[in-house]
């Protein structure tokens, strides 16, 4: 299935079910009105977001399992890579006709990426190469970049001047693709901090040697790059300085596999013996073999534990938010506080006495938030009218976006019944001046 979500409401508003096997890649066209998806069923499908229908289906001459997908900046050229025939298929979006089949790789195609400025397609493969194909020169190989390990993902910088490549050895390299010259590299394996899986016979440190980044995405300005893979962490690097800027932990759910870092090769129990200052370490696996499961462990413990991983990362066009598809689901991180869900549920601290106490301490913003959580109109009016007129500007600037609309709604109703018209006009003016642009985009 292909699901399309509204990022403001967090609801899925359409689901496409035409694929008959697993979907391996999805992408938007540049105009945002068409979604393309590649699948192991041997088809690439184009979906119209106006009429919510599958209006184009692309297939190969011979049945192939498609592992990756890319569309050029004009939205007219569609490409998909095969994981069984090691070929790249090129179609026309307008006619649906197969234009060319590109061969030359000796391993499964792991990733495709079009240069956003020039007519160049980059293809990554498990054969340790990245090939650059020239669209204007009959799709001939323009350059072949040799890597030290299997290549998992490639991504062009938004200005098209730089190519980022992530390989199986955990390294991210940056290339000037015009001159086939490497301009920098990031050793990211240690930043992944892969946890030890439940059935692993080796330590997390040893297991990390086989871990790598499987998805990359440049920020809108090209100064930063997001990287994620077989780990519970998403890393954001500064491209110029090649340093880690921030690391996001996407989950704290320990019912998933590879969440915990253990130094010992197996889980260990410890218990004191009657003799003083004596401690015995018992191997968990041998213990389970010798004792009944009724004596050890929780019977509700899940037998199958999905492994935590990040499968895809994408920045928004504005660069102020990014999305990640993970074992936990679809996650969105944003700099805009308006996207944060803050339920108006009560807790033991939200009481009229505490609200008045907060107001007495001149913590006006917190008092307003607490009053709206309690949602008693007389108390809301009491709190707002207690704010000095010279403090309104400061309170409005510190008010979370989630409560701006609620304050405006209250002001609109208060204009009809209140005698403090000038005071409420000051509130409305300050709120609209500070938050009007954000309210307009909703």
From TrEMBL:
Gene name tied to this protein: Pwp2
Single GO BP term: maturation of SSU-rRNA from tricistronic rRNA transcript (SSU-rRNA, 5.8S rRNA, LSU-rRNA)
Annotated keywords: Repeat, WD repeat
GO cellular component: Pwp2p-containing subcomplex of 90S preribosome; small-subunit processome
Recorded family membership: Belongs to the WD repeat PWP2 family.
Pfam family, one: Utp12
Protein name: PWP2 protein
Xref: CDD domains: WD40
PANTHER family: PERIODIC TRYPTOPHAN PROTEIN 2 HOMOLOG, WD40 REPEAT PROTEIN
Residue ranges of domain Small-subunit processome Utp12 in the record: 375-441
Organism: Anhinga anhinga
Repeat (WD) residue spans along the chain: 16-57, 102-135, 151-185
Superkingdom classification of source: Eukaryota
């Amino acid at each position: 299935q292909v699901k399309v979500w509204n990022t403001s409401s967090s609801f899925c508003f359409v689901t496409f079910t035409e694929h008959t096997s697993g979907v391996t890649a999805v992408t938007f066209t540049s105009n945002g009105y068409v979604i393309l998806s590649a699948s192991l069923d041997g088809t690439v499908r184009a979906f119209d977001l106006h009429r919510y229908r599958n209006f184009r289906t692309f297939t190969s001459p011979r049945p192939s399992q498609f592992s990756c997908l890319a569309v050029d900046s004009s939205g007219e050229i569609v490409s998909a890579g095969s994981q069984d025939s090691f070929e790249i298929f090129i179609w026309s979006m307008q006619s649906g006709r197969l234009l060319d089949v590109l061969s030359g790789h000796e391993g499964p195609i792991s990733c495709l990426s079009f240069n956003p400025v020039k007519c160049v397609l980059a293809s990554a493969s498990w054969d340790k190469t990245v090939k650059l194909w020239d669209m204007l020169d009959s799709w001939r190989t323009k350059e072949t970049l040799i890597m030290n390990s299997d290549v998992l993902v490639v991504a062009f910088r938004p200005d098209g001047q730089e190519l980022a490549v992530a390989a199986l050895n955990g390294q991210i390299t940056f290339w000037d693709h015009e001159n086939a010259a490497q301009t920098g590299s990031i050793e990211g394996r240690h930043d992944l901090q892969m946890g030890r899986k439940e059935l692993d016979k080796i330590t997390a440190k040893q297991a990390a040697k086989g871990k790598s980044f499987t998805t990359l995405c440049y920020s809108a300005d090209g100064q930063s790059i997001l990287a994620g893979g077989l780990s519970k962490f998403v890393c954001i690097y500064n491209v110029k300085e090649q340093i880690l800027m921030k690391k996001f932990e996407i989950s704290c759910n320990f019912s998933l596999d590879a969440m915990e870092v253990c130094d010992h090769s197996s889980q260990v129990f410890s218990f004191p013996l009657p003799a003083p200052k004596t401690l015995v370490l018992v191997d968990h696996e041998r213990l389970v073999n010798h004792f009944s499961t009724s004596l050890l462990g929780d019977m509700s413990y899940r037998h199958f534990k999905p492994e935590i991983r990040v499968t895809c990362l994408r920045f928004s066009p504005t660069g102020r938010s990014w999305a990640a598809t993970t074992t936990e689901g679809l996650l969105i991180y944003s700099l805009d506080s308006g996207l944060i869900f803050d339920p108006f549920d009560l807790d033991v601290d939200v009481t009229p006495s505490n609200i008045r106490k907060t107001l007495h301490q001149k913590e006006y913003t917190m008092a307003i938030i607490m009053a709206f959580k309690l949602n008693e109109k007389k108390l809301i009016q009491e709190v707002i009218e207690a704010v000095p007129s010279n403090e309104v500007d400061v309170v409005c600037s510190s008010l979370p976006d989630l409560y701006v609309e609620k304050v405006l709604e209250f002001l609109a109703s208060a204009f009809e019944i209140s005698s403090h018209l000038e005071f409420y006009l000051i509130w409305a003016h300050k709120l609209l001046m500070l938050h009007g642009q954000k309210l307009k985009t909703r």
